[in-house]
Amino acid sequence: MNPDYVIAFLASTAGAATPLVLASSGELVAERSGVLNLGLEGIMLVGAVTGFMATVSTGSLPLGLLAALLAGMAMSLIFGFLVLTLQTNQVATGLALTLFGIGLSAFLGRDLVGQTVAPIAPLSFPVLSGIPFFGPLLFRFDPVVYLSLLLVVAAGWMLARTRIGLQIRAVGEAPHSAHAIGMPVIGLRYAAVLFGGAMAGVGGAYMSLALTPMWVEGMTAGRGWIALAQVVFATWKPRNVVLGAYLFGGVTVLQFHGQGMGLAVPSQFLSMLPYLATIVILVIICRDPKTILLNKPMSLGQNFKAD
User: Fold this and answer.
1) Exposure string (b/e) for 53-66, b if CB count within 10 Å is 16 or more?
2) Global pTM?
3) Measured between alpha carbons, how far is residue 183 from residues 116, 167, 180, 192, 263 in Å?
């Protein structure tokens, strides 16, 4: 196989996986605190349109990413207020947030359709980038790709090695016991939910500022739902998030390469491959319920109210 083709395929896979790495890692932290946020799709869309709008207005990609991060936090704050303060049902509230995000992003982006921005430029490593094969494969990505991988490492370290990580896991497993020994259960869950929303917002903005540097209504195309599924695929372990995201990214890129190569397969079938692969993987994992039960936070999706 042509090495240039392999490099192009793997590099494209990394780009396609990055929004999922960001959204999944943020949602994983939220779920480890016991909160299930089904509004990721809406948050990613709002992040995508907000980041694109800010970049078009200011001409600054960093400001666009920052705006998307803040927009994601604002959306997750709405969710947090409803489920943590008002004690609404987490599943119903998350679904409502997705519908709200879809409508809000379409409204905000109605005048942005067709506009483009310069994509996020890749980093340049003068010596390392020139290494045959490995140079373009490892050292020619934009900063967000590298930051997403560092984020997963940081999230894993935080959950496993720090006091705040232990507290987050404690309120996700037994919130009433955590409250009894003085842990601020609601405060920790708010922090985890805001972090998840921030990462989902940046993940959405990466799509509108890097993958396809333009705004298209509904451009996340279900990636928020895929990110939710990948948390289960990862069995709530940060290191597995990268594996799932890059697997989905590879299948996504494969469908485009298949269409470009003129395979005698209906384009609709190729387009559904990433989602079909996700379903198949989840079915395989869920055949062994012990795998899920041993890692799933015990209070996931359950509201907490101090007695």
Assistant:
1) bbbeeeeebeebbb
2) 0.92
3) 47, 7, 7, 14, 57
- Quote the CA–CA distance of 109 and 125 in Å, as a whole number: 36
- 3-state class (DSSP) for residue 89: coil
Give residue 301's identity as a one-letter amino acid code: G
Query: What gap in Å lies between CA 132 and CA 279, rounded to an integer?
Result: 37
Contacts of 117 by beta carbon, 8 Å cutoff, 6+ apart: 52, 55, 56, 61, 64, 209, 213, 214
Alpha carbon 46 to chain centroid, angstroms: 13
**C-alpha span between 42 and 214 (Å, rounded):** 18
Tokens of 106: 């379409």
214 beta partners: 116
Within 10 Å of residue 135's Cβ, how many Cβ atoms? 15
CA atoms within 13 A on the CB side of 236: 23
Nearest Cα residue to 208 out of 118, 77, 133, 126: 118
Bridge partners (DSSP) listed for residue 116: 214
Q: How far apart are CA 167 and CA 77, in angstroms?
A: 20
Classify 182 in phi/psi space as left (phi over 0), alpha (psi -120 to 50) or beta: left
Other residues' Cβ atoms within 10 Å of the Cβ of residue 5: 10
CA dist 127 and 4 (Å) reads 19
Pair 80, 193: CB distance under 8 Å: yes
- Give the pLDDT confidence of 34-87 residue by residue, as tens digits: 999 999 999 999 999 999 999 999 999 999 999 999 999 999 999 999 999 999
